[in-house]
Amino acid sequence: MGKKNKRIQSEEQQEQDQEPFNDAEKTKKSGKKRKKSKNIEEDEQKHNHVIEENNPKIIPTVSIAIPVSIIANTQSLELATRLVGQIARAATIYRIDEIVVFDNNESSLEEPLDMSSTKENESNAAFFMRILRYLETPQYLRRVLFPRHYNLRFAGLLPPLDAPHHFRKHEWGSYREGVTLEEKAPGGTFVDVGLSKNVVVDQVLSPGIRVTVAMGNDRSLSSGVLHHVVPSTTPKEEEGMYWGYKVRYAPNLSSVFEHSSYKNGYDYVIGTSEHGEAVKPSELCIPAFRHLLIAFGGLAGLEECIKMDSKLQEKDAREVFPTYLNLCPHQGSRTIRTEEAVFISLQFFQEPISRAVQNG
């Protein structure tokens, strides 16, 4: 089975995920790059935030919230990796825009994932986010954006997301994901977009930042045409293309709502639980929304997540989630695992969400 899985990997995945490595040797060879990576990550977030803030067009988004606790009882690193891979696959198949990974007992809003860290014993939240972001990143960018890490050892065994922005080297698209390079170009910056030649964008940017580049119709890479960096939402807004998901951390359930990525927060929130109301997809009416959030519970459900949150523990689940649904009322198993519930729920919501978007 292992050999069959390895055969389906791209060359880039094999180089990143399957080659054994020594953490101490890696640290020695690339220590300088590690010190920079935290700043690069912050630069990328600031750059994307500014460029999207100036974008007046708003399209409906769908987010899902997943508790970190679902990987707490996994028996091995490989099983934990596969579990996160299932969440990533579900999010991509159903065109989810954002995955919020939330803890049950943390208080700090600081993101736990440090891309420069080589520590094997990083928190469950950091592990979860690392795998999600790695899988969402096009293969040709992974070696630059993701330093080798112990917790990525089994990522190459996962089925690829094969999202629309994961272009092959021979494919042309109106937009491509790229990473800025150290080499400067006259009046701009060189960007590696996974083609035979690098392109030049009309902005001077720090190296190591992931950007979305508008490629235009001129397929001649030697013409010297300056390309434009656009918000990562542009492909979806202009051409209806799904362009992957963002990953956000929340220390607890209340922070999922209070610290939304969107300026005015989520305007419609749905909770899923075996204790919720059973409805059919044709009967569920979701109002027109700008930002929809669907929350999932862990081993003990959303009720336990609410009890462990000091801001919510006095509330009933239906106070936190006015729409509280049981999407598999006739289940044959006593329990439905969260990764299974995500697939079941997102399929269930396809019809109601489509109606809401059309009505909006």
Helix content: 25-40%
Major beta-sheet overview: 6 strands, parallel
CA radius of gyration? 21 Å
Helix-and-strand structural type: alpha/beta
The coarse silhouette is globular
Report the order of strands and helices.
HHHHEHEHHEEEEEHEHEEHHEHH
Instruction: Give me the number of helical elements.
Output: 13
Annotation, overall tally of beta strands: 11
Tell me what portion of residues adopts beta-strand conformation. 15-25%
Spatial strand arrangement across the major sheet: 8-2-1-10-9-11
Uncertain regions: pLDDT < 50 for 5+ in a row? 1-41, 47-53
What separation lies between the terminal Cα atoms?
A: 47 Å
Could you tell me the mean pLDDT? Answer: 84
Describe this structure in words.
- The protein is α/β, with parallel strands linked by helices.
- It contains 13 helices and 11 strands.
- A 6-stranded parallel β-sheet has the order 8-2-1-10-9-11, sandwiched between helices. A 5-stranded mixed beta barrel has the order 3-4-5-7-6.
- A hairpin with a 6-residue loop joins β4 and β5.
- α2 runs parallel beside α7, α5 packs across α6 and α5 runs parallel beside α12.
- The radius of gyration is 21 Å and the shape is globular.
- It starts with a helix and ends with a helix.
- InterPro entries: Alpha/beta_knot_MTases (IPR029028), NA-bd_OB-fold (IPR012340), Put_MeTrfase-C9orf114-like (IPR003750), tRNA_m1G_MTases_N (IPR029026).
